[in-house]
Design goal:
homotetramer, 253 residues, 8-stranded mixed sheet, 13% strand
Chain lengths: 253, 253, 253, 253
């Protein structure tokens, strides 16, 4: 991957981070987040200019080095070429409201969207669901629209609160992270936990409800930073294996 | 793909369109419409002679340049070789009754056929279902037969009305489009929306019912012509990737 | 595939038929019948000596030219090497009782076995289910044992009657055919119809029940001999594509 | 695979056994047990020093020759490099309490974990479930925590009793075997039986309940040692085919 574009010259670390964000996009595709060219991760510009957002008309699996535009928090394009996703306000408003995080993801992951299209609360039925132990995943139900307007994005921000993810009813999900590792893992675990819950409830079996206090202790035990690094490295190896085998680009069935 | 057959000489644009229709067939296979050698798309002849229909005994994934016959609206073969699908009246009658469209698709897409074999109404539970915001998908229940007779085809036409798709109970689906892009996307979204609804309802969760007026506004926002082009291009890239990887022909498991 | 074994010399047509039976085994694997090295098709010896049965310890996907033994109707091995499947009585008794058929298949196809482990009757909810229009598929419930004893096999024969297939409760399925094409298609359609019915009923939707008389007419229309040939050829092409891509042998995930 | 590490020199048979254990890990991955780098098999050291445990930060599909550490029953690392899985007490306590077995497996196999997160009892609805005919699979519900503490491991031991497997509610499963073949097959059949039961019950069909006495007879018939060898060899061939096709390492989707 080469960076011919001069925009990265002012800060080499941005290019390096965007490389990781690109892998994050491609990992999300492999873990069930793909829906044509829908879905995107954004990254808060470290120089305070706004956010780097994946450009449009690319599948998650197609995102590589240069595929970003820099926009300010009002959506003005400052650098980069290509289409600006019309849901940019979702990213801008969350980044503005949440100084604790630097990355925002949005997708239509199948099972998380299924769960989001219902009244069901995501629960820690397995390890993946425990990722959300300290902040249950709320649901935004004010509209089924995609989030293209600032006032809608502000509504989502309010529902999201301090959580790591929010279900967008009849639409998809949004999720955040302080690091690219965190935003990717949050997206991955959200979809895995939703799939588990859908399968568990579809079976008709009576679920066992874990204790909330224990669930937090469980989070502390299974998701310390070194474990998160381990999982992030795993998904990177998996991506590399996949791309070596099938070549880069859109995931084949 | 070479066109040795003289029938295309009179109008080069037909060959070009049929190339796109072939990709439409192969895209439908990748998106879950395959059922052995069942399923076909037809194209209204621009010279008013009738319709170009995929010839028989080929899987959707096997359709390429020359695999069409030209028939008039009474089913007489005017050009081309190979088997005439016995469901030709379904195509002929829809094309006669609907001057607004130029393409008709028919398949046994799994989830759409599951939904069609029930009393359930397809609903806009996610973005894919929103494709049908302006015209709910009706169900044809007069028979479980395949549509090989003109009088049956006329019944389907009546149920279809001005809609983009119709569920054929205990059989499959039919869908239409003004362009090859539109007929393909309609088929794809019909199957995706049905799969989503089956998974949502199988979970036992209480679904959230989107507002019908909002659903139309949502359609306007997410499916303008440029977005449709974007999705059509995505599915073409996906097809190319797949065929580069596995070679052309029947899709491997 | 070479036939070094002298046993085929007396009748070259047997080797040719067994080649087709081997493709039948491998097609069944691709269509969801695989369960480790379980499952087998038998072929009535045209010289009246008994039956040719796939030998043991091979997956359906591994069966090729020489992988058969000839046994008489009492299970004595007349020709060939390798393990005799202990369920040989199932094949012998069905072939003895049903002079109208020459091939017997047995497998643990997932969805057909799921349906067989319940009180549910297989129904013609889609085209695949229509294959059984003239003879509903009965269920053998006298035991959950595999059929290794002649008296159990005779019980299965009684339940099977003149049908094309029988569900073996908590075990698997058996299916028959006059030709290798027919036995293979019967196995394939049994599994596809069962999968359809499982998905339809799991959805919780109210199914539409097709009319039994119409279902027979539908069978006549969609499954004439030339259509069966067409489907058999399709599955052979699919198998070839798959084996070209992945190589022969056990199916990869 | 080369063994440069001197630790194997004192007993060549250990290296040979660990080779088989590595295949066991990779087979479990192919059969649905993979969850990032979670899951591990341990092997009782034949010299009485403790147990050989897969080292951390590797997926089941990545485990090869050297990827083990030798720990004593108090968790002290005696040989080998790499991370010690924090769930080592689960292995140590089971091996201490069960002199009849030499191998312990632990994973988050999807369907077995779904069933484990409910009140449902695993039942012998198909052949795979019959593997557990003589010892129903109990459920450990004292905690949803992973088993990192000796006192928790002792609780699991008590629930496990003389069984071959135990469901760990809201977490995963553990399973044992006298041989590497047995521990692997137990893991495989546990997941397959759970998937079958989930699909059967999700369908809403009324299940047929096999007779417990007959189920034991069925076990004797279908799972004698030579059949177990046959299945173990099958999974080894399948693994080889898969790795020839895709290369070793993390399983591609």
């Amino acid at each position: 991957m080469s960076f011919l574009n001069t925009r990265y010259h002012e800060d080499g670390s941005i290019a390096a981070t965007l490389e990781a964000v690109s892998r994050g996009h491609r990992i999300l595709e492999l873990e069930g987040h793909g829906d044509m060219t829908m879905g995107h991760i954004s990254y808060r510009d470290p120089w305070g200019r706004g956010l780097w957002l994946k450009r449009g008309n690319l599948a998650l699996s197609e995102v590589a080095g240069d595929d970003y535009i820099l926009i300010d928090f009002d959506g003005n394009v400052l650098e980069g070429t290509g289409l600006r996703h019309i849901e940019w306000p979702l990213h801008a408003e969350i980044l503005k409201a949440r100084p604790d995080i630097n990355f925002v993801g949005h997708s239509h992951a199948h099972y998380a969207t299924v769960l989001g299209a219902s009244e069901e609360q995501l629960k820690p039925y397995n390890n993946h669901g425990v990722w959300f132990a300290y902040s249950p995943v709320p649901r935004y139900t004010a509209t089924s629209h995609i989030i293209t307007e600032v006032h809608r994005a502000k509504e989502v921000v309010e529902v999201l609160g301090g959580s790591q993810a929010v279900l967008l009813a009849n639409h998809g999900v949004a999720f955040v992270g302080e690091t690219v590792e965190e935003v990717t893992l949050t997206g991955v675990f959200l979809e895995k936990a939703a799939e588990f819950q859908v399968d568990l409830r579809a079976s008709g079996f009576s679920p066992i409800e874990p204790d909330p206090v224990e669930t937090k202790e469980k989070f502390d035990r299974i998701y310390p930073p070194k474990a998160q690094d381990n999982f992030w490295m795993f998904f990177n190896r998996k991506l590399e294996r996949y791309e070596e085998f099938q070549g880069p680009g859109i995931a084949t069935p």
